[in-house]
Amino acid sequence: MSEQFDVIVIGAGPAGENAAGRTAAGGLRTAMVEKQLVGGECSYWGCVPSKALIRPGDVLADARRVPGAAPAVTGTVDVAAALGWRDYMVSSYSDAGQVDWVDSAGITLVRGRGRLAGPRTVEVVADDGSVRTLTASRAVVLATGTSAAVPPIDGLRDARPWDNRDVTGLKEVPRRLVVIGGGTIGVEMAQAVKRLGAESVTVLEGGPRLLAREEPFAGDAVQEAFEAEGITVRTGVKVTSAHRADDGPVRVGFGDGESVVGDEVLVAVGRRSATSDLGLETVGLEPGRPVAVDDRLLATGVEGNDWLYAVGDVNGVALLTHMGKYQARLVGDVILGKDARDKASRDVVPRVTFSDPQVAAVGLTEEQARDRGLDVRVVTTPTGGVSGTYLLGDGLGGTCQIVVDEARHVIVGATFVGAHTAELLHSATIAIVGEVPLETLWHAVPSFPTVSEVWLRLLEAYGL
Ligand SMILES: Cc1cc2nc3c(=O)[nH]c(=O)nc-3n(C[C@H](O)[C@H](O)[C@H](O)COP(=O)(O)OP(=O)(O)OC[C@H]3O[C@@H](n4cnc5c(N)ncnc54)[C@H](O)[C@@H]3O)c2cc1C
Ligand SMILES: NC(=O)c1ccc[n+]([C@@H]2O[C@H](COP(=O)([O-])OP(=O)(O)OC[C@H]3O[C@@H](n4cnc5c(N)ncnc54)[C@H](O)[C@@H]3O)[C@@H](O)[C@H]2O)c1
């Protein structure tokens, strides 16, 4: 016997929860299938615990920059308390609170591993092996997210590497940590672990710089800050081997015969879509790959498709919680019959790396804009050049930049590197989405003394 719903969502991470919430609020009978914890990677092994672990070290670094406050910082992070706070922030890895919300939203939660079994049909295998078959009259939404990719490095799997779950869930700070990959996870967690008290942290990045997807000055600024606080950064290196002798440390080989020893090795080289066991082949899609979507989040490549959607990390478009939630709200609207289109996930993605200095960026980098054939002009200003920044403490650096489309006189990309720049980002996102002409932006007056005065400097540098 199959159970009938209007909408079935597979995966209850931030994307799945928001899709299900939207369709249920619109009056559709909605089922949400989850094999592990309602809340997904973000709540328990991603955004939330990583930011909780970053915060104590950040606060101390902030205080050390302020004359008068600095002498009060006489100790180090209390690791046990920091980990306790992390545990609190992840609700001790219990999803009871989120399940209360699911119930209150009128969503039917189906526990187990979901799999497509042909068009509009989902089979769910529970932990006890029992199987339920669900059918959807309107839509199936895939929201199964990703897991950490492990590169084919000789000996790495046998060396028991850490992934994002291990590092965000750490119970003890490793004395020496080696990080493979200098992207967002590698950068954030390298600094967090160092500031929690690790003696040595080494980041091995294959590309030419840290945070390769951002403006070059962003990765360079982070590398400079890392080296100043004793984090070793090696860029442009090929990691060739990893070897752990029994329960001892791991030796990671790289480059031309060099190696570094760590008590743990964190692998942070990107993500793999969770589609290898999702029954994609039953609807003509290839398993193990991201589910490609159009601007209505409909899966492409399925014949006559008007029922299968994919939102969040699983579609590989913009691997960020807020973008998954945005796509989820859109998909809810599309399923409810509205003419909703995704206008942001490819060109106007806001992103923050919560390192110190922070790297906050939205839209296109200069290189991306030029690759698209846009006639752009780029202006920069030092983040430390405004009163709002230098009142935050001594020696704060960083660079802010806007990329201006000269044909339309609007901003298509912005990057803010420095202390506390994350909260500046939404102003740039609004300017880009709203296509606000620079001459109009000139009348958006930033308060004194705030870091937002970098806007004034940027527009002055442009010539206004
Ligand atoms: C360390 C780390 C830090 C991060 N920090 C940030 C940050 O600060 N800001 C930010 O925006 N993003 C951050 N991210 C990215 C963010 O976590 C993801 O973009 C987000 O979790 C994606 O949401 P999702 O719902 O698409 O997938 P997920 O959160 O991965 O959820 C997918 C859910 O589907 C379930 N599932 C999978 N397969 C099945 C199946 N077959 N049947 C049933 N259930 C299934 C999983 O158990 C999971 O609960 C971070 C990621 C990591 C790893
Ligand atoms: N603050 C945030 O919003 C936040 C924080 C963490 C993660 N995330 C999301 O999670 C995603 C995954 O993060 P990630 O750091 O795993 O991936 P990433 O794509 O950000 O970075 C991976 C890095 O690993 C490097 N790399 C790849 N193979 C390598 C190898 N064999 N040896 C050495 N370096 C190698 C790449 O050049 C790249 O710089 C991010 O893309 C981001 O969307 C977001």
TrEMBL record:
Pfam entry (one): Pyr_redox_dim
Organism domain of life: Bacteria
Alphabetic keyword roster: FAD, Flavoprotein, Oxidoreductase
Domain called Pyridine nucleotide-disulphide oxidoreductase dimerisation: residue spans: 349-455
Domain FAD/NAD(P)-binding: 5-321
The UniProt record lists the keyword Oxidoreductase: yes
Broad EC category: oxidoreductase
Cofactor(s) in the UniProt record: FAD
GO MF term (any one): oxidoreductase activity
SUPFAM superfamilies: FAD/NAD(P)-binding domain, FAD/NAD-linked reductases, dimerisation (C-terminal) domain
EC number: 1.-.-.-
Similarity comment text for this entry: Belongs to the class-I pyridine nucleotide-disulfide oxidoreductase family.
Name of the protein this chain belongs to: Dihydrolipoyl dehydrogenase family protein
